[in-house]
Amino acid sequence: MPELTLLHADHAPAVLAFELANRAYFAASVSDRGDEYFDRYADRHHALLAEQAAGICAFYVLVAEDGSVLGRFNLYDLEDGVAALGYRVARHAAGRGVATAAVEELCRLAPARHGLRTLRAAAADQNAASRKVLVKAGFVPTGPADPADVGGKPGTWYRRDLVPPRQG
Predict the structure, then answer these.
(1) Statement: residue 1 has pLDDT above 90
(2) pLDDT digits (tens, 9 = 90+) for 60-109
(3) 3-class SS of residue 9
(4) Which residue from 54, 63, 88, 64 is spatially nearest to 74, judged by alpha carbons?
(5) Percent of the chain predicted with pLDDT > 70
(6) Are 30 and 72 in contact (CB under 8 A)?
(7) What is the pLDDT of residue 45?
(8) DSSP string of 113-156, one letter each residue
(9) Least crowded by CB within 10 Å, which of 60, 82, 94, 164?
């Protein structure tokens, strides 16, 4: 059973292997990270851990029983109980419900662990799989996304309230 766990230093080799193995697959729907990202991955991983320690972001990995990474699920721009969600799943795991299950689990964890009340996520209009994950996980469309938010393509923002709004 895959486990959704907070990113830590020991995940670096498995996350890099995940990104490299799926680079072309991801580039088909979002902008490629570029060679420098991979050449300087150790520095990038340390920077992510520093952002996480500062409470700006929370990075999760979906780890298979063999220790390989099946997906990344990131909460970023945590502020005033709201965060943006981004995720990517390995090609061999896509279409099996793992993304939806991980997003749903993250929605359960986010209020207690990170004090979040609302998550937002942008998906490219052409990325039917990602839009389906969001809708199945309880997100609703809220309006157009800037192409810069979805790999230079037209997209839509989605929102999910995690806890009921406070009564006045």
Answers:
(1) no
(2) 999 999 999 999 999 999 999 999 999 999 999 998 999 999 999 999 99
(3) helix
(4) 88
(5) 96
(6) no
(7) 95
(8) HH--SEEEEEEETT-HHHHHHHHHTT-EEEEEEPGGGGTTS-EE
(9) 164
**What pLDDT is stored for residue 50 in this prediction?**
96
d(CA 90, CA 18): 7
β-partners of residue 69 are: 63
Q: What are phi and psi of 96, to 5 degrees?
A: -110, 5
Tokens representing 140 are: 């609703």
Structure tokens at 122: 């942008």
Tell me which DSSP letter residue 91 carries: G
Query: Is the per-residue pLDDT at 168 higher than 70?
Result: no
Residue 139 burial (CB < 10 Å; 0-12/13-18/19+)?
buried
pTM here is 0.91
Cα 168 to the chain's mean position, in Å? 32
User: What would you measure as the largest C-alpha separation in the chain, in angstroms?
Assistant: 51
Angle between helices 12-21 and 41-53 (to 10 degrees): 120
CA distances, 54 to each of 16, 70, 115, 117 (Å): 23, 26, 14, 19
List the alpha helices (DSSP H) in the chain. 12-21, 23-27, 35-39, 41-53, 98-114, 128-136
